[in-house]
Structure formats: structure tokens, C-alpha cells
Amino acid sequence: MNLIVLLDGSRIRSIVNCLTLLLWLGVAIACAQRSNVPVPNAIRSMLDKEYRGWRLAESPCEVQEYFRHQRVSFAPNLLNGDFNGDGKRDYALLIEHRNRLIALAFVNKGRGFTKHTLETPPKGEVPVYLWLYRKGERDTDYETGKEFVYRTDAIGVMYYEKAGVSYVYERGRFRRVITSD
User: Fold this and answer.
1) Nearest to 163 by CA among 150, 175, 180, 148
2) Which helix (H) or strand (E) holds 90?
3) Burial code of 128-150, b = ≥16 C-beta within 10 A, e = fewer?
4) What is the value of pTM for the model shown?
5) Segments making up each domain of the chain, as ranges
6) What's the whole-number mean pLDDT along residues 104-131?
7) 45 membership: H or E segment, kind and range
8) DSSP assignment of 117-175
9) Which pLDDT tens digit goes with each residue over 6-40?
């Protein structure tokens, strides 16, 4: 026996609204990206003291789709590399604290990490994410117009489809280089 259901306009709208909500939730769940790299306990402890209630910044779907397309092995909010060239694993995090974004680097000194605040990008205007530049990669310094090669791994703070800067570790601090426009 066939079952035919007649729906009035309000029920159809209700069903469409429910389906729209389910689709939105599905996209939100699909876009929830977790890093494969855990935040080391020493860094987590430092963050808990200075940025009580912090969390890794969420990555918008367009950024996550870009990362999937590029097939990168790092997350848009947590990187590890050797930023000072000493062979130890250093970290960069994009965190959210009190409704603002903060890009931080943590250089491994063997007995602990030294924190460096890179920048505090505006939240919500343009999606922001981190990018890992590997030692030996080429880039262009847009202020000087000259090409250069990264001598160590470096951190990119990128503004999706807008601009980006690299942070290169030199003489105990990170130098900001405009590397995309």
C-alpha cells in the first residue's frame, strides 16, 4: 500500500528549516578541525597562567578547505618547526582569548620555552591562519622587492585571500617580513 502525505505550507517551511539546520550543523561538524600536534604541557601551562580561558582559534571552513586542497601536514592554528635553527622543536599557536586572536611563538630553550607575541590580528573581518615556511623555501620581501630563502623554518600569519606576513627568527627575536599582498 502506498502512503501519501499531504503537507500544508507551514509544515513544508518547517521541514525545510529543519533540513537547513541539519545541513548547517553537518558543515560545522565537517569543518571542525583538530590539530594532530598536541600542545606541549609546558606551553599549555604558560598559556593557562597568562591567558586564562584561552583556546586554539577556530578555523573557518574556507581555510580548512584550502588546507585540504594544498595537502599540508599542519593545522591552521598550531605549527611546529625549528624556528631558531638549533634542532629543537619550536611551536606557533593562533589562540583566542577574551574574544580576540593572538599569534604566539614558543622557542624551545631546552629547559623550557620562551614566548614571543607575534601579532594580534583583528577577529572576524578576514579569516586568519598560520602557515609553516620550511627552511630552504623561497619567498619575496614585498617591502624591499627582493627574493630571499628561509634560513630556518618560519611562521606565516596569513589573512585569507588578502595578505600575509612571515616571522623570521633572527638574533633572539622574530622579525616581521611582508611576504604576500
Assistant:
1) 180
2) strand 90-97
3) bbbbbbeeeeebeeeeeeeeeeb
4) 0.79
5) 31-180
6) 93
7) helix 41-50
8) EEE-PPSSSS-EEEEEEPTT-EEEETTTTEEEE-SS-EEEEEETTTEEEEEEEETTEEE
9) 555 555 555 544 444 444 444 443 454 444 568 99
